[in-house]
Amino acid sequence: MMQLRHFTFNPFQENTYVLYDETKEAIIIDPGCYEKEEQGLLNGFIEKEGLKVKYLINTHCHIDHVLGNAFVKRKYQVPLWMHKNEVQVLKAVSAYASNYGFPGYEETEGDKFIDEKDSITFGNTTLEIFFVPGHAPGHLIFYHPETSTCIAGDTLFQGSIGRTDLPGGDHATLLRAIKDQMFVLPDEVKVYPGHGPATTIGDEKSHNPFVGKNARF
User: What mean pLDDT value characterizes the chain?
Assistant: First the structure.
Protein backbone atom coordinates (compact mmCIF):
# COMPACT_ATOMS: atom_id res chain seq x y z
CA MET A 1 0.00 0.00 0.00
CA MET A 2 1.23 3.47 -0.82
CA GLN A 3 2.78 5.51 1.96
CA LEU A 4 3.56 9.22 2.08
CA ARG A 5 6.19 11.28 3.82
CA HIS A 6 6.32 15.04 3.59
CA PHE A 7 9.02 17.58 4.35
CA THR A 8 8.69 21.36 4.61
CA PHE A 9 11.62 23.14 2.99
CA ASN A 10 12.97 26.60 2.11
CA PRO A 11 11.75 30.04 3.25
CA PHE A 12 8.54 29.59 1.26
CA GLN A 13 7.65 26.67 3.59
CA GLU A 14 7.05 24.42 0.61
CA ASN A 15 5.86 20.84 1.08
CA THR A 16 7.99 18.18 -0.61
CA TYR A 17 6.48 14.70 -0.90
CA VAL A 18 7.98 11.23 -1.08
CA LEU A 19 5.55 8.50 -2.12
CA TYR A 20 6.53 4.84 -1.84
CA ASP A 21 5.11 1.38 -1.28
CA GLU A 22 6.07 -2.10 -0.11
CA THR A 23 8.30 -2.65 -3.16
CA LYS A 24 10.51 0.23 -1.94
CA GLU A 25 10.13 2.05 -5.23
CA ALA A 26 9.48 5.74 -4.69
CA ILE A 27 8.86 9.05 -6.40
CA ILE A 28 9.73 12.54 -5.23
CA ILE A 29 7.24 15.33 -5.95
CA ASP A 30 8.25 19.01 -5.88
CA PRO A 31 11.63 18.93 -4.12
CA GLY A 32 12.04 22.30 -2.44
CA CYS A 33 15.31 21.37 -0.73
CA TYR A 34 17.88 24.10 -1.40
CA GLU A 35 20.19 24.04 1.60
CA LYS A 36 22.58 21.14 2.24
CA GLU A 37 20.79 20.41 5.50
CA GLU A 38 17.48 20.09 3.71
CA GLN A 39 18.97 17.83 1.08
CA GLY A 40 20.45 15.72 3.87
CA LEU A 41 17.06 15.32 5.55
CA LEU A 42 15.49 14.11 2.33
CA ASN A 43 18.32 11.73 1.49
CA GLY A 44 18.54 10.48 5.07
CA PHE A 45 14.90 9.37 4.96
CA ILE A 46 15.33 7.68 1.60
CA GLU A 47 18.42 5.81 2.77
CA LYS A 48 16.87 4.85 6.11
CA GLU A 49 13.82 3.36 4.37
CA GLY A 50 15.94 1.70 1.69
CA LEU A 51 13.98 3.38 -1.09
CA LYS A 52 14.80 3.34 -4.77
CA VAL A 53 13.75 6.64 -6.34
CA LYS A 54 12.23 6.04 -9.76
CA TYR A 55 11.05 9.49 -10.84
CA LEU A 56 11.21 13.17 -9.99
CA ILE A 57 7.92 14.95 -10.66
CA ASN A 58 6.91 18.62 -10.58
CA THR A 59 3.27 19.53 -10.10
CA HIS A 60 4.34 22.89 -11.52
CA CYS A 61 7.59 24.79 -11.81
CA HIS A 62 7.52 27.89 -9.64
CA ILE A 63 10.80 28.48 -7.82
CA ASP A 64 9.79 27.11 -4.42
CA HIS A 65 8.87 23.73 -5.92
CA VAL A 66 11.99 23.21 -8.04
CA LEU A 67 14.89 24.35 -5.85
CA GLY A 68 15.92 20.73 -5.29
CA ASN A 69 15.41 19.46 -8.83
CA ALA A 70 19.10 19.44 -9.73
CA PHE A 71 20.04 17.71 -6.47
CA VAL A 72 17.45 14.96 -6.89
CA LYS A 73 18.26 14.35 -10.56
CA ARG A 74 21.97 14.12 -9.82
CA LYS A 75 21.74 12.15 -6.57
CA TYR A 76 19.31 9.48 -7.75
CA GLN A 77 19.96 9.60 -11.50
CA VAL A 78 16.28 9.97 -12.30
CA PRO A 79 14.33 11.81 -15.02
CA LEU A 80 12.24 14.90 -14.36
CA TRP A 81 8.58 14.59 -15.34
CA MET A 82 6.42 17.69 -15.85
CA HIS A 83 3.71 19.16 -18.07
CA LYS A 84 4.87 20.72 -21.34
CA ASN A 85 3.17 24.00 -20.44
CA GLU A 86 5.65 24.43 -17.58
CA VAL A 87 8.76 24.52 -19.76
CA GLN A 88 8.97 28.31 -19.87
CA VAL A 89 8.00 28.58 -16.21
CA LEU A 90 10.96 26.37 -15.28
CA LYS A 91 13.37 28.18 -17.61
CA ALA A 92 12.43 31.53 -16.06
CA VAL A 93 13.53 30.49 -12.57
CA SER A 94 17.23 30.95 -13.26
CA ALA A 95 16.59 34.58 -14.23
CA TYR A 96 15.08 35.56 -10.89
CA ALA A 97 16.39 33.00 -8.37
CA SER A 98 19.12 35.33 -7.08
CA ASN A 99 16.56 38.07 -6.46
CA TYR A 100 14.73 35.71 -4.12
CA GLY A 101 17.91 34.81 -2.23
CA PHE A 102 18.89 31.62 -4.06
CA PRO A 103 22.12 32.47 -5.91
CA GLY A 104 23.14 28.81 -5.97
CA TYR A 105 20.08 27.63 -7.88
CA GLU A 106 20.97 25.08 -10.56
CA GLU A 107 18.90 25.06 -13.74
CA THR A 108 17.29 21.81 -14.88
CA GLU A 109 15.21 20.67 -17.83
CA GLY A 110 12.30 18.29 -18.13
CA ASP A 111 13.02 14.80 -19.47
CA LYS A 112 9.45 13.60 -19.99
CA PHE A 113 6.27 15.56 -20.53
CA ILE A 114 3.22 14.27 -18.72
CA ASP A 115 -0.17 14.40 -20.34
CA GLU A 116 -3.28 14.51 -18.18
CA LYS A 117 -4.42 11.31 -19.90
CA ASP A 118 -1.35 9.49 -18.60
CA SER A 119 -0.86 7.72 -15.30
CA ILE A 120 2.25 7.25 -13.19
CA THR A 121 3.26 3.85 -11.85
CA PHE A 122 5.96 2.97 -9.34
CA GLY A 123 6.13 -0.38 -7.60
CA ASN A 124 2.56 -1.60 -7.13
CA THR A 125 1.17 1.94 -7.09
CA THR A 126 -0.54 3.86 -9.87
CA LEU A 127 -1.43 7.54 -9.66
CA GLU A 128 -4.12 9.17 -11.76
CA ILE A 129 -3.30 12.57 -13.24
CA PHE A 130 -5.54 15.63 -13.47
CA PHE A 131 -4.82 18.90 -15.27
CA VAL A 132 -5.67 21.81 -12.96
CA PRO A 133 -4.31 25.06 -14.49
CA GLY A 134 -4.87 28.54 -13.16
CA HIS A 135 -2.11 28.91 -10.59
CA ALA A 136 0.36 27.84 -13.26
CA PRO A 137 -0.31 27.03 -16.93
CA GLY A 138 0.68 23.37 -16.74
CA HIS A 139 -0.28 22.50 -13.17
CA LEU A 140 -0.94 18.81 -12.50
CA ILE A 141 -2.31 17.00 -9.47
CA PHE A 142 -1.94 13.32 -8.62
CA TYR A 143 -4.62 11.07 -7.17
CA HIS A 144 -4.36 7.64 -5.57
CA PRO A 145 -7.87 6.18 -5.16
CA GLU A 146 -6.87 3.24 -2.96
CA THR A 147 -5.60 5.50 -0.17
CA SER A 148 -7.86 8.48 -0.96
CA THR A 149 -4.79 10.68 -1.43
CA CYS A 150 -4.42 13.74 -3.63
CA ILE A 151 -1.12 15.59 -4.11
CA ALA A 152 -2.45 19.00 -5.01
CA GLY A 153 0.51 21.34 -5.40
CA ASP A 154 -0.63 24.95 -5.27
CA THR A 155 -4.22 24.46 -6.42
CA LEU A 156 -6.31 23.93 -3.30
CA PHE A 157 -5.31 24.73 0.28
CA GLN A 158 -7.01 24.51 3.64
CA GLY A 159 -9.39 27.46 3.40
CA SER A 160 -7.74 28.95 0.33
CA ILE A 161 -6.59 28.45 -3.25
CA GLY A 162 -3.40 29.09 -5.18
CA ARG A 163 -2.49 32.66 -6.07
CA THR A 164 -3.21 33.63 -9.66
CA ASP A 165 -1.29 36.89 -10.04
CA LEU A 166 1.91 35.30 -11.33
CA PRO A 167 2.71 34.98 -15.06
CA GLY A 168 0.51 32.29 -16.59
CA GLY A 169 -2.02 32.46 -13.76
CA ASP A 170 -5.73 33.00 -14.21
CA HIS A 171 -8.25 33.22 -11.38
CA ALA A 172 -11.34 32.09 -13.27
CA THR A 173 -9.45 29.18 -14.81
CA LEU A 174 -8.31 27.95 -11.41
CA LEU A 175 -11.78 28.17 -9.87
CA ARG A 176 -13.27 26.25 -12.76
CA ALA A 177 -10.51 23.62 -12.73
CA ILE A 178 -10.88 22.97 -8.99
CA LYS A 179 -14.62 22.58 -9.38
CA ASP A 180 -14.42 20.35 -12.47
CA GLN A 181 -11.33 18.30 -11.69
CA MET A 182 -11.04 18.15 -7.91
CA PHE A 183 -14.52 18.52 -6.47
CA VAL A 184 -15.62 15.43 -8.41
CA LEU A 185 -13.38 13.36 -6.12
CA PRO A 186 -14.92 11.71 -3.04
CA ASP A 187 -15.36 13.94 0.00
CA GLU A 188 -13.06 11.79 2.10
CA VAL A 189 -10.06 12.31 -0.20
CA LYS A 190 -7.20 13.88 1.73
CA VAL A 191 -5.62 16.80 -0.05
CA TYR A 192 -1.89 17.33 0.48
CA PRO A 193 -1.08 20.87 -0.71
CA GLY A 194 2.16 22.58 -1.68
CA HIS A 195 2.04 24.69 1.49
CA GLY A 196 0.37 24.33 4.84
CA PRO A 197 -1.60 21.47 6.42
CA ALA A 198 -3.56 18.75 4.68
CA THR A 199 -7.31 19.06 4.25
CA THR A 200 -10.10 17.06 2.59
CA ILE A 201 -12.22 17.56 -0.50
CA GLY A 202 -15.34 17.51 1.66
CA ASP A 203 -14.09 20.20 4.02
CA GLU A 204 -13.15 22.51 1.17
CA LYS A 205 -16.43 21.95 -0.67
CA SER A 206 -18.22 22.98 2.51
CA HIS A 207 -16.06 25.76 3.88
CA ASN A 208 -13.56 27.13 1.35
CA PRO A 209 -14.41 30.83 0.85
CA PHE A 210 -13.22 30.80 -2.78
CA VAL A 211 -14.71 27.54 -4.10
CA GLY A 212 -16.93 26.18 -1.32
CA LYS A 213 -20.71 25.88 -1.39
CA ASN A 214 -21.21 29.48 -0.27
CA ALA A 215 -18.66 30.99 -2.65
CA ARG A 216 -19.70 32.92 -5.73
CA PHE A 217 -17.99 31.44 -8.74
Answer: 97
